[in-house]
């Protein structure tokens, strides 16, 4: 009896990498929720698009934002604005992160093969951060019409500074991590354990 091949072609390696990025992104975003605009998701989204392709560029940041927002708002309830505005802002933050993933798909992985390349990657991530913040400002203006545009823009300045600083931390960190893993792979912990437990040669 001949088994029919499944119409869905699953790449186990990419799925495993996607799960790792999602767990990392959700964990770090929740852990850093108390620090305004200090987040790893934007850098992870770009890495996802760069390393895994277009499908994952959208799925990974969307999943990270949805799961982490669910956890954050479950503990902090509605916040100052209420659920209607929170859901509206979520549309802009989620789509903004998906845009970051899309930018990653237009970036060649070999960019992260040199120190100079990681510097260029970090600069690109900063540009994406500024675009992302401008996009969320548009959302804030549309969803909070009683606040003046000037007031919203002025209030956004410190948050954007924090966000750029966040990108300066996470973009080179994840970029370097991606380079290391593609170059050397994951460490073989079982080998380390065997080496540690092996008896030393007696002279």
Structure description:
The chain is an all-alpha fold and 203 residues long. It has a single domain (16-185), classed as Orthogonal Bundle (Arp2/3 complex 21 kDa subunit ARPC3), CATH 1.10.1760. 75% of the residues lie in helices and 0% in strands. The chain contains seven helices and no strands. The protein has helices at 12-31, 41-52, 54-76, 83-105, 115-143, 149-184, 189-197. Helix 2 packs across helix 6 and helix 5 runs antiparallel to helix 6. It is globular, with a radius of gyration of 20 Å. The termini are far apart. The model is unreliable at 1-8 (pLDDT under 50).
Q: CA-to-CA gap between the ends?
A: 62 Å
Quaternary structure classification = single chain
* Biggest sheet record: none
- Low-confidence stretches at least 5 residues in length (pLDDT < 50)? 1-8
Throw out a few tags for this protein:
mainly alpha, Arp2/3 complex 21 kDa subunit ARPC3, globular, disordered N terminus
Question: Short summary of the structure?
Answer:
With 203 residues, the chain is an all-alpha fold. The chain has helices spanning 12-31, 41-52, 54-76, 83-105, 115-143, 149-184, 189-197.
Task: Break the fold down into its secondary structure elements and pairings.
Elements: H1 12-31, H2 41-52, H3 54-76, H4 83-105, H5 115-143, H6 149-184, H7 189-197
Helix pairs in contact: 1-2, 1-3, 2-3, 2-4, 2-6, 3-4, 4-5, 5-6
